[in-house]
């Protein structure tokens, strides 16, 4: 290790020598020696084990998001685990039995792609990385319970993934269907909507296309309402940004289904609309070109129309969903030469196919209201279709009496003010606001919201419609055509169809990678493992084949927090009694990159397990803290940018504690940390300074506290009183700053006060060690031992502040009027100048003395003096 750079060494040399011991007797703060000394002690002591059934302390479950084993630990991990550990260690000091586990999210594409690139077995590559990360983590010393380690690529874990799949399958929540799926041509795999970012693959950044495939889904849409409504419970305990991201992702929309009769077709077509109030303004219908309905409607059409449609469909298939929904794009479409009938007015309207209508939302068909919907208006203007205004958006909607302008001759409503109510077909701007209905027969005069209700009721009464809801959320596509994942425990039999693998035959082990071509090619590599694939049907014994797909790794991470509770239990996924004891997670800590997917899936699976009776709670993570990123020179660290800071080098240079302390001290946890702006060597210096205090203390552990220096005692107890609230509101950086002040105050008492033997110095040193345990565990442990205690400081309980020491001192402020002392006020030494001035002005003695003279000048020297000058009488 690089001792030459140890900043602490220089500090120790410059520390004043006033403890009575000779210079050469004093050891320097040597982080490497301290790390080397305490790590083996902790490994022996297991201070963070949670396996004592007789433990009666109240419990807390503190969870850090588990890492992908994609290489050694990096600076981002270092930040996350430093911050998560502050919380875990804090609750232990508060008397809780804290469960703080760690594991690896070790299946998935990163491992597989890396393994392919290097020609290695993904299992070997993954396990090597885990071993390396584990060694780094041990040295980094978060207070993990090392007896509950799990890794998702271990059969002992993924067996229960398969069990979970079967539970969902039994409930009808896992199903297979053929559909257009997002396809990454580079990774040669399907992607969930969530994994497509801006039309590109989240992993490799290539453009995503569509492909029709049969895939496995989890029916998360059945839980959409609950996933949305239960977010209310998390308000205040989760970052509001994450809650709103979840809400938008689920995207609940309420409106109505409306059925339109189609000329020349027996079956009517249902459309979904959020604006049933605009039904009188419908001037055409649009179906998604890639829907079955469109193909069917165009079947009997003239050959030119069919040709035009087929050509159009080809183009549409190659267009991303994002482009299709874009309002910027020129509208395209094909008239199908078919007609629908408006259910309320009987009006005959043309049916078009256009790509701005998506096949997998609502019913894949819409009623178009160009006057009030921008996309419909753009389309109508492009193809010269009629535009009819049915909501007068210049009309006030509050107040009982609507103003309706009708032509006295014809009784037709008149648009009230041409200027105010502009014609959308001319302006190109749809009228989307509030207003009152016009041109809508019996509904004229109703406000938009009343009309939505009344029109829906009218439709419902004649069986032509009903209230409806839709979600942006799609079912969760969980199958992948890749090797490195959990095999789906289904067998396909010619006779029986899909047959679940019996639970007693789990796990379905992955076949060895050796001999398989893992290169992505659109079908699962598992298909080539013929010995593995060909089985006999568990149901009829006939020839059958295994499902060759593997599960999305988000399945693995959707319930891992429960597996930690029974990590070594080979008989069940988790013990419901352990879940009852520990879960839900009290505090979850991790990156905001998982704000949508991972959290949504974990919330979904939690609700499923609740419904199945395995757990008694419905939300997995009671509170969530998202730490920021660690940047370098203003941007995310990356090899290609050349601004990568290597954690191992930072640890070698500054020591574990200095790096951890720097992470906590850098600012609020949610903010990004720019490593160029922080000073790990400054942290190391501070740690040396703190450590030196314990080294200096000469009193014995049984001193009488009362006899100590009162000023230092007050500072210590103020810190004891304030730190808990600061930690609980994640103001770790403030606690560190306060701790620095306490160290300074203690040093002052040693060097220029009552000295190192004073009881207050010992008391302060002990509190400093306990507080440092949160941020710099090695230094804290070493101080604790120097102070005469057995390890571990991590188990020492936070002390209750003495209330008599928390009462603030007061000082006497003198108030002068025109140079004469008129009053003395007892005030806080921290009083603000403004407050002191108003106290002085309010003083009766001062007012008597000022009388009716005008005050021309006030000089305030808080907290000791206020000088008031008046204008001398003429
Ligand atoms: C008529 C109408 C009039 C509409 C109006 C809006 C405004 P959200 O909020 O996203 O649920 N729509 C329905 N299905 C669609 C599909 N498969 N593809 C594209 N658009 C679709 O939006 C629902 C609205 O989006 C529906 O309400 C429908 O247009 C359109 F003044 O119906 B509306
Ligand atoms: Zn069978």
Automatic annotation (TrEMBL):
One of its GO terms (biological process) is leucyl-tRNA aminoacylation. Belongs to the class-I aminoacyl-tRNA synthetase family. Its EC number is 6.1.1.4. Residues 38-235, 474-674 form the Aminoacyl-tRNA synthetase class Ia domain. It catalyses: tRNA(Leu) + L-leucine + ATP = L-leucyl-tRNA(Leu) + AMP + diphosphate. It comes from the Bacteria. A motif ('HIGH' region) lies at residues 67-77. The keyword Membrane does not apply. GO terms for cellular component: cytosol. Residues 11-20 have a biased composition (Polar residues). Residues 247-459 form the Leucyl-tRNA synthetase editing domain. The gene is leuS. A motif ('KMSKS' region) lies at residues 636-640. Keywords: Aminoacyl-tRNA synthetase, ATP-binding, Cytoplasm, Ligase, Nucleotide-binding, Protein biosynthesis. This is Leucine--tRNA ligase. PROSITE patterns: AA_TRNA_LIGASE_I. ATP binds at residue 639. It is found in: Cytoplasm. Residues 1-24 are annotated as: Disordered. One of its GO terms (molecular function) is leucine-tRNA ligase activity.
């Amino acid at each position: 290790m690089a001792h030459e750079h140890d900043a602490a060494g220089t500090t120790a040399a410059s520390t004043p020598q006033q403890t009575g011991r000779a210079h050469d007797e004093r050891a320097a703060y040597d982080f490497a020696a301290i790390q080397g000394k305490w790590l083996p002690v902790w490994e022996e002591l297991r201070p963070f084990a949670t396996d004592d059934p007789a433990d009666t302390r109240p419990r807390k479950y503190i969870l850090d998001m588990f890492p992908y084993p994609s290489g050694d630990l990096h600076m981002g991990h270092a930040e996350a685990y430093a911050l998560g550990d502050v919380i875990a260690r804090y609750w232990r000091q508060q008397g809780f039995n804290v469960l703080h586990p760690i594991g690896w999210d070790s299946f998935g594409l990163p491992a597989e792609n890396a393994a392919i690139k290097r020609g290695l077995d993904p299992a070997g590559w993954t396990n090597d990385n885990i071993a390396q990360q584990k060694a780094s983590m041990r040295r980094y010393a978060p207070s993990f319970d090392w007896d509950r380690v799990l890794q998702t690529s271990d059969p002992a874990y993924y067996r229960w993934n398969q069990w979970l799949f079967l539970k969902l399958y039994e409930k009808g929540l896992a199903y297979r269907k053929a559909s257009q799926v997002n396809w990454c041509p580079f990774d040669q795999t399907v992607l969930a909507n969530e994994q497509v970012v801006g039309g590109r693959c989240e992993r490799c950044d290539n453009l995503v296309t569509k492909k029709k495939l049969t895939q496995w889904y989890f029916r998360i849409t059945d839980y959409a309402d609950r996933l949305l409504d239960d977010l209310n419970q998390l308000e205040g305990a989760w970052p509001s940004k994450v809650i709103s991201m979840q809400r938008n992702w689920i995207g609940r929309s309420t409106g109505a289904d409306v059925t339109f009769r189609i000329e020349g077709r027996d079956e009517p077509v249902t459309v979904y609309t959020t604006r049933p109030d605009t039904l009188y303004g419908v001037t055409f219908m649009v179906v998604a070109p890639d829907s079955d309905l469109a193909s069917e409607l165009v079947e009997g059409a003239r050959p030119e129309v069919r040709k035009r449609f087929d050509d159009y469909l080809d183009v549409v298939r190659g267009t991303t969903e994002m482009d299709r929904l874009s309002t910027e794009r020129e509208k395209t479409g094909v008239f199908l030469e078919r007609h629908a009938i408006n259910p309320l007015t009987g009006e005959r309207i043309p049916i078009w196919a256009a790509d701005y209508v998506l096949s997998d939302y609502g019913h894949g068909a819409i009623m178009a209201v160009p006057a009030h919907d921008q996309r419909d208006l753009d389309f109508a203007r492009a193809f010269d279709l009629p535009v009819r205004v049915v909501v007068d958006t210049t009309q006030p909607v509050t107040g009982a009496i609507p103003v309706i302008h009708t032509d006295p001759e014809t009784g037709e409503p008149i648009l009230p003010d041409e200027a105010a109510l502009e014609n959308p077909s001319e302006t190109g701007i749809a009228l989307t606001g509030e207003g009152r209905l016009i041109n809508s027969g019996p509904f004229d005069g109703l406000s938009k919201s009343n009309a939505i209700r009344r029109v829906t009721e009218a439709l419902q009464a004649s069986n032509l419609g009903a209230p409806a809801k839709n979600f942006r959320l799609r079912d969760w596509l969980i199958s992948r055509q890749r090797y490195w994942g959990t095999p789906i425990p289904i067998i396909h039999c010619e006779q029986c169809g899909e047959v679940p693998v019996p639970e007693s035959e789990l796990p379905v082990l992955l076949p060895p990678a050796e001999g398989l071509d893992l290169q992505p090619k659109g079908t699962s590599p598992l298909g080539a493992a013929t010995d593995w694939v060909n089985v006999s049907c568990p149901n009829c014994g006939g020839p059958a084949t295994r499902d060759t797909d593997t599960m999305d790794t988000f399945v693995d991470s959707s319930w891992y927090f429960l597996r930690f509770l029974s990590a070594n239990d080979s008989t069940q996924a988790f013990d419901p009694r352990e879940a009852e004891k520990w879960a839900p997670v009290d505090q979850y800590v991790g990156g905001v990159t998982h704000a949508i997917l991972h959290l949504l899936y974990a919330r979904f699976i939690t609700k499923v397990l609740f419904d199945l009776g395995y757990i008694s709670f419905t939300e997995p993570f009671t509170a969530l803290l998202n730490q920021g990123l660690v940047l370098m020179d203003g941007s995310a660290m990356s090899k290609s940018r050349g601004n990568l800071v290597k954690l191992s080098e930072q640890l070698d240079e500054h020591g574990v504690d200095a790096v951890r302390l720097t992470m906590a001290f850098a600012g609020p946890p949610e903010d990004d940390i720019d490593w160029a702006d922080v000073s790990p060597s400054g942290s190391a210096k501070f740690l040396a300074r703190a450590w030196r205090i314990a080294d200096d203390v000469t009193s014995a552990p049984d001193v009488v506290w009362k006899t100590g220096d009162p000023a230092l005692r007050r500072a210590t107890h103020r810190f004891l009183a304030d730190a808990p609230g600061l930690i609980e509101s994640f103001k770790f950086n403030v606690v560190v700053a306060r701790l620095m002040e306490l160290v300074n105050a203690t040093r002052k008492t040693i060097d220029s006060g009552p000295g190192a033997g004073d009881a207050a110095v010992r008391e302060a040193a002990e509190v400093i060690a306990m507080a440092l345990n949160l941020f710099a565990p090695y230094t804290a442990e070493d101080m604790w031992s120097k102070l005469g205690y057995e390890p571990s400081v991590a188990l020492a309980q936070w002390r209750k502040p003495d209330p008599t020491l928390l009462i603030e001192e007061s000082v006497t402020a003198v108030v002068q009027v025109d140079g004469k002392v008129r009053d003395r006020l007892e005030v806080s030494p921290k009083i603000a100048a403004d407050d002191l001035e108003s106290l002085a002005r309010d003083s009766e003695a001062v007012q008597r003395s000022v009388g009716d003279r005008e005050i021309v000048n006030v000089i305030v020297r808080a907290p000791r003096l206020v000088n008031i000058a008046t204008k001398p009488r003429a």
